[in-house]
Amino acid sequence: MTVPDPVFIDTNILVYAHDRSETVKCPLARQLVLDSVRAGSAVVSAQVLSEFFITVTRKIAEPLSLRAARNELSVLARLRVVPVDSTLILRAIDIMSGHQTGYWDALILSAAERARCEVVWSEDLSNGRSYGGLKVVNPLITYR
To answer: Is 41 in a helix, a strand, or coil?
Structure first.
């Protein structure tokens, strides 16, 4: 898969890249993240970084230690990170009502929109669905 420029990476893709119990998804997600970082196209939000921390320290089969998770976050923080602010939240509410999505998904879409991404990599959002100028791609299906 060619890495689009820029691409918004949802939490689940980052989590799979660190979840060694996911023997198929982990190497695929790792390669995706690595390719997007090398291309300089990886975009995340403060929300994604927060969700990543909670998930990799509490919800995966082999949780990372707080120290390891902090180290990973310090690396991820070097990516383009969209801050969550009141304008982003208000836009998310508009996306919710216009596209019938949940709030947290709408906040992801709002951040991707702000970063001028055309593609959101996500396993949680509907693969192939468009939200205005954003297209959701499940790269764990299409990258193989």
So the answer is: coil
Q: Domain of 15?
A: 7-142
**1 in any annotated domain:** no
Q: Residues 79-91: what's their mean pLDDT?
A: 98
Give one word for 100, left, alpha or beta, with left for phi > 0 and alpha for psi -120 to 50: left
Rg, C-alpha atoms of the chain: 14
Q: What integer is the mean pLDDT of 90-106?
A: 96
Beta bridge mates, 119? 7, 135
Does residue 2 lie in a domain region?
no
